[in-house]
Amino acid sequence: MTGKRKDGAKLEIRKLPISKIAPAPYNPREISDKALEGLTASIREFGLVEPLVWNKRTKRLVAGHQRLKALQKLGATEAEVVVVDLPESREKALNVAL
Fold first, then answer.
1. What confidence tens digit (pLDDT) does each residue in 3-41 have?
2. How many CA atoms lie within 13 A of 4 on its CB side?
3. If pLDDT is split at 50, 70 and 90, which confidence band does 73 have?
4. Percent of the chain having pLDDT more than 90?
5. Closest to 5 in 3D by CA, of 63, 80, 84, 81
6. 3-state helix vs strand vs coil in the chain, percent to 5
7. Angle between helices 33-46 and 65-73 (to 10 degrees)
8. What is the gyration radius of the CA atoms in the chain, in angstroms?
9. Domains along the sequence of the chain with CATH
10. What phi and psi values does residue 94 have, to the nearest 5 degrees?
């Protein structure tokens, strides 16, 4: 699936095996066990309604670390991701922004 971003570039969404999605080691966000249970229940009921954001240049997750944990708890084998192509410095900036 593709769309357009504000800058005119194409927006790419694809399915990736969860085993190929590496969490960013610098991600500052944490989730409590209770919040993870709630998120997991929500994804179980409604599905993943907001894709993860994955950087094809570094093969790392930029946004959606908690959603990824919930998907793993549910035994999912793949996830929809918005694909970006960024150098690491821009990847980190986007991680903080999201």
1. 555 555 578 999 999 999 999 999 988 999 999 999 999
2. 3
3. very high
4. 84
5. 84
6. 35, 30, 35
7. 70
8. 13
9. 12-97 (3.90.1530.10)
10. -65, -40
Q: Is 60 exposed, middle or buried (0-12, 13-18, 19+ CB in 10 A)?
A: buried
Helix, coil or strand: residue 48: coil
Contact in structure between 96 and 24 (CB atoms under 8 Å):
no
The token pair at 44 is 């179980």
Please report where in the chains the tokens 């309604």 appear, as a residue: 49
Compute how many other C-beta atoms are within 10 angstroms of the C-beta atom of residue 95.
Answer: 21
Percent of the chain with pLDDT over 70: 91
